[in-house]
């Protein structure tokens, strides 16, 4: 059985794993979720959020036996953690997540995508330090196949996303390459296109690339199926 550490994406928090954690526990695993700096219960001021701080939050919660799951933007801090301390995790799972290209920030990665679903949906704060998603676009982008209850729950918890760490390039070496990796592509994703997800994981081993017929939020739309898939993946690490 595995120890799973769940790392959320932009504007989310540990709260988004609400339905997945009990499914993983029912399969005999342990599962924990953390808030990135300035998200959820973490009180870091947005102006002080850095990619390094997000990386360190992941490392502080991990052990050499931990399987780390990163969703969406969470692909960046989990990769940064693997680069810094490859011995502090058993493996990485990218859940419809960005797989960094060395030397690029996530903002630069987004611009490489074949399509840009977020155009017109991102609202920057007056001080330029953070952004939120335009309210009418929240469900179509993130939760189109989720229940009304899940959407209402998410709306009540979404928060501003610091821009600073998403404009910081991440440089990778063979240290990151030592860590086993797997990718779960969501084929009905309207935030990160399925085509771009496939491009980002094309160098992953073929038996560690998986598809789910889901929106960008399978932790809400298909928590049991996602837990079963994660359980299968951890046995490959």
TrEMBL record:
Signal peptide: none annotated. Residues 4-228 form the AB hydrolase-1 domain. One of its GO terms (molecular function) is methyl jasmonate esterase activity. Coiled coil: none annotated. SUPFAM superfamilies: alpha/beta-Hydrolases. It holds the Pfam family Abhydrolase_6. InterPro entries: AB_hydrolase_1 (IPR000073), AB_hydrolase_fold (IPR029058), MES/HNL (IPR045889). This is Esterase.
